[in-house]
Amino acid sequence: MKYTVISFDELGRLDSSSVRIFREKLAQVTTDNDAIVLDFTGIDFIDSTGLGAIIAVANSTWGKTELLISGIKEDIRRIMELTRLHSVLPLYSSVSAAIETLQQKTSTEKFKKAA
After folding, report:
1. Helix, strand, or coil here: 5?
2. Angle of CA points 64, 81, 41, to nearest 5°
3. CB-based burial of residue 92 (10 Å sphere; 0-12 exposed, 13-18 middle, 19+ buried)?
């Protein structure tokens, strides 16, 4: 499984002042990825503009590329749960946890093909 990890550490916030940079970073990702891990470790704040940008990315990748969110702070996790985004986009405590899940899926898929 081919995946890319995109870090947003330099943003600090995902709001109207930074959403353009968020979109530009995602636009640089090649379309031949099976999954994209969004590393939000450096994001301390998110507003409705940021949520809208995440939803737009989820909609554009739906059915083509798996999108995972990692490293979110507790306040942002609560926002994702209140808006029910967590039911569409899996949330992970760290990049390594997200990657481990992807690797387990790959192992499971290989096992099913071999059976």
Report:
1. strand
2. 70
3. buried
- In Å, what is the CA distance from 66 to each residue of 12, 17, 35, 59, 115? 24, 27, 4, 11, 25
| pTM listed for this prediction | 0.84
pLDDT above 50 for 110? yes
Report helix, strand or coil for 7. Answer: strand
Residue 51's SS3 state is helix
pLDDT at 107: 66
φ, ψ of residue 112 to 5 degrees: the values are: -65, -40
Residue 113 has pLDDT above 90, yes or no: no
pLDDT one-digit tens code per residue, 45-69: 999 999 999 999 888 888 888 999 9
Assess contact for 79 and 55: CB atoms under 8 A.
no
Q: Give me the domains of the chain, ranges plus CATH numbers.
A: 3-114 (3.30.750.24)
CA dist 98 and 90 (Å) reads 9
